């Protein structure tokens, strides 16, 4: 120990450690920090302790600089505007690097551009990294953040250490993960996920800093090294690119660990629904692509009596079969990083009530009385109040343009949610009885259906598609494939990932039922056929009854079990066109299956497990005959 310590101190050389006790960090962490200090050459090193004093110190600094601005209407809430060039995840600059290309990505058809993850060779990645990281923190402080994904010390949890030169990132990591010195104790000399993040804006700055938000959008690079459990992110401060515990660790790296250890790391919410009459509680996990309704569903406010909904997680689920074969899930995160626009006291009161204190609002508008504002809050603020948009312009409700960026976000502690589940931090997790897939499907796809089997359900998941949203850089509303809602988060070969899902159906595992939902089907006038939000409880009610084997409420269709007419509670709803909501246009489905088959052939040809082809063949046959 002594020898290693000496070397490390020498390597940190003249760079001061302005906070924390370096000598008491675990050895492996010392070496990790020392190596990156040498590479990034920060002005100082700051070891975070996760305390409130620390947060206040950082907030104060950021207020002085002008990056954060206090919203005086609430308690400890701050608004932040980014450089308008740094507002979303950047999928095109996200890579996985492994020795063997086909560990990272599937074999694609010749001439086809793979969209299920991107591989970069170790050699090229080294060049790209060398072109960015050396000296990238010059003149800035490097923060060392110890964090746990999942409750600290739980057997299902994993530890990471993030180095970053962004104090905004530090503040958000404190909300989204569990940052604490206890992490060092639990870690000891074990392995951890190595996370390195830089805004890519060393001093003196070369690039004009806009809104006091340093970044380097031209040179964004988000690199994953699953073999050594390392993540290096450069150039962006936006959440999905910079809060490395979230998408990079809890999905892309974790799914690699999950494959090796026989569990699942998925882009899923977890919620519990209690039927008040019997007290029976059913837990559901659901995967929808980014900005397609996970946060809203996870904390929905039921519009019909008799149900109590409680949220465990709104974005990521780690799930594992226990020794009795029951599937248990935890939420590895500690906060919600939610889409702001569309959120209001009608659509999602629980989210609104969660973010009235200790929260950070990014790229939203601000009202003259010190409140937040975004599209969807028209009826909840004074109609004539002066508003400053996310771009800093003066604006009023009714004028052209928007107050908030469509991907504006709130970052708030999950524990503040009025309906947070009492077991949300239970180390064992909660028992998952159903998995739901879904997406934005304007035509053809019914409100809900149930897969015939696990294998069929995995195929349904593999064929998930959705309209593009503002959560990443895609423009327009094109319908994109997004298998299991994981396309942007694929951390290894997509074909093998499907194989992993299929492999879970073995003794003693009791695999959950799989469903598909679509809140976004339109009528010919372009209006939603389904009211959505709190009314989605009506669909969950049907799902729960199916989970508990109620047979009389389902009818067989070519694509799966559909609700029998009248089996979904429509009491108190305006007119709902059941036939249109559940119709299965034959030509649409024939085309859709052909197109999905083509997608799988293009993107994962030889790697797609035979069981998926068999399911597609059978589906095609049923649709043709049906
Ligand atoms: P997430 O990114 O998957 O967590 O999605 P959110 O729950 O944040 O929702 C993203 C956007 O979809 C928001 O603007 C919501 O208002 C909207 N949304 C969510 N649920 C529904 C729904 O049931 N129906 C409709 N029409 N829109 C919804
Ligand atoms: P979301 O999370 O799924 O709630 O949109 C952020 C993201 O996926 O980018
Ligand atoms: Mn997400
Ligand atoms: Mn969300």
From TrEMBL:
Extent of the signal sequence: none
One GO CC term, this protein: cytosol
Pfam family, one: PEPCK_N
GO MF, any single term: phosphoenolpyruvate carboxykinase (GTP) activity
Domain of life: Eukaryota
Cross-referenced InterPro entries: Lipocalin_CS, PEP_carboxykin_GTP_CS, PEP_carboxykinase_C, PEP_carboxykinase_GTP, PEP_carboxykinase_GTP_C, PEP_carboxykinase_GTP_N, PEP_carboxykinase_N
Residue intervals of the Phosphoenolpyruvate carboxykinase GTP-utilising N-terminal domain: 32-259
BP GO terms, sorted: cellular response to glucose stimulus; gluconeogenesis; glycerol biosynthetic process from pyruvate; oxaloacetate metabolic process; propionate catabolic process; response to lipid; response to starvation
UniProt-listed SUPFAM superfamilies: PEP carboxykinase N-terminal domain, PEP carboxykinase-like
Keyword Chloroplast included in the entry's annotation: no
Listed cofactors: Mn(2+)
Domain Phosphoenolpyruvate carboxykinase C-terminal P-loop, chain residue ranges per copy: 263-622
Enzyme Commission numbers on file: 4.1.1.32
Keywords: Decarboxylase, GTP-binding, Lyase, Manganese, Metal-binding, Nucleotide-binding
Family, similarity comment: Belongs to the phosphoenolpyruvate carboxykinase [GTP] family.
PANTHER family, per the entry: PHOSPHOENOLPYRUVATE CARBOXYKINASE, PHOSPHOENOLPYRUVATE CARBOXYKINASE [GTP]-RELATED
Subunit structure, interactors included: Monomer.
Protein name, entry field: phosphoenolpyruvate carboxykinase (GTP)
Source taxonomy: Eukaryota, Metazoa, Spiralia, Lophotrochozoa, Mollusca
């Amino acid at each position: 120990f002594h020898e290693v310590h000496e070397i490390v101190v020498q390597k940190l050389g003249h760079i001061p450690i302005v906070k924390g006790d370096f000598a008491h960090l675990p050895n492996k962490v010392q070496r990790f920090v020392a190596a990156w200090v040498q590479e990034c050459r920060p002005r100082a090193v700051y070891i975070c302790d996760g305390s409130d004093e620390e947060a206040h110190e950082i907030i104060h600094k950021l207020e002085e600089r002008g990056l954060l601005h206090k919203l005086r209407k609430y308690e400890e809430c701050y608004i932040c505007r980014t450089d308008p060039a740094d507002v979303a995840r950047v999928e095109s600059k996200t890579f996985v690097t492994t020795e063997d290309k086909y560990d990272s990505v599937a074999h694609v058809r010749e001439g086809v551009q793979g969209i299920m993850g991107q591989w970069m060779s170790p050699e090229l990645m080294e060049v790209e990294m060398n072109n960015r990281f050396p000296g990238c923190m010059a003149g800035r402080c490097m923060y060392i953040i110890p964090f746990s994904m999942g409750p600290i010390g739980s057997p299902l949890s994993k530890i990471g250490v993030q180095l970053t030169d962004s104090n905004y990132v530090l503040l958000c990591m404190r909300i989204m993960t569990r940052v604490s010195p206890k992490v060092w104790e639990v870690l000891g000399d074990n392995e951890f996920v190595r996370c390195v993040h830089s805004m890519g804006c060393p001093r003196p700055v070369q690039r004009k800093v806009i809104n006091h938000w340093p970044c380097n959008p031209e040179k964004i690079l988000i690199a994953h090294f699953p073999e050594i459990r390392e993540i290096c992110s450069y150039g962006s401060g936006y959440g999905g690119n910079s809060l490395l515990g979230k998408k990079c660790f809890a999905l892309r790296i974790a799914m690699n660990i999950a494959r090796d250890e026989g569990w699942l790391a998925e882009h899923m919410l977890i919620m519990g629904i209690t039927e008040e009459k019997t007290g029976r509680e059913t837990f559901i996990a659901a995967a929808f692509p980014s900005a397609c309704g996970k946060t809203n569903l996870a904390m929905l406010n039921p519009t019909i009596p008799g149900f109590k909904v409680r949220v465990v997680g709104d974005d990521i689920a780690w799930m594992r079969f226990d020794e009795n074969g029951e599937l248990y899930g935890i939420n590895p995160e500690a906060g919600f990083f939610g889409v702001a626009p569309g959120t209001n006291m009608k659509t999602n009161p629980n989210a609104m009530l969660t973010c009235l204190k200790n929260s950070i609002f990014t790229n939203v508008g601000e009202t003259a009385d010190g409140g937040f504002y975004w599209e969807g809050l028209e009826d909840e603020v004074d109609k004539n109040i002066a508003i400053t948009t996310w771009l800093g312009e003066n604006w009023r409700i009714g004028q052209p343009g928007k107050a908030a960026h469509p991907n504006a976000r709130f970052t708030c502690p999950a524990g503040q949610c009025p309906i947070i589940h009492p077991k949300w931090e239970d180390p064992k997790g909660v028992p998952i009885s159903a998995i739901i897939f879904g997406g934005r499907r304007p035509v053809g796809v019914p409100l809900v259906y149930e897969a015939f089997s696990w294998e069929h359900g995995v195929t349904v998941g593999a064929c998930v598609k959705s309209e593009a949203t503002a959560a990443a850089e895609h423009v327009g509303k094109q319908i994109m494939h997004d298998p299991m809602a994981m396309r942007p988060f694929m951390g290894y070969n997509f074909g093998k990932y499907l194989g992993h899902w299929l492999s879970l159906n073995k003794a003693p595992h009791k695999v959950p039922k799989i469903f598909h939902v679509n809140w976004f089907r339109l009528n010919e006038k372009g209006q939603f056929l389904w009211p959505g939000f709190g009314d989605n409880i009506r669909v969950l009610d049907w799902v729960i009854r199916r989970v508990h084997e109620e047979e009389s409420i389902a009818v067989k269709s070519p694509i799966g079990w559909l609700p029998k007419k009248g089996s979904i509670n429509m009491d108190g709803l305006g007119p709902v066109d059941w036939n249109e909501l559940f119709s299965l246009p034959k030509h649409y489905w024939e085309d859709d299956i052909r197109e999905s088959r083509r997608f799988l052939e293009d993107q994962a040809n030889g790697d797609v497990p035979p069981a998926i082809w068999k399911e597609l063949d059978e589906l095609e046959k049923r649709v043709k005959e049906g």
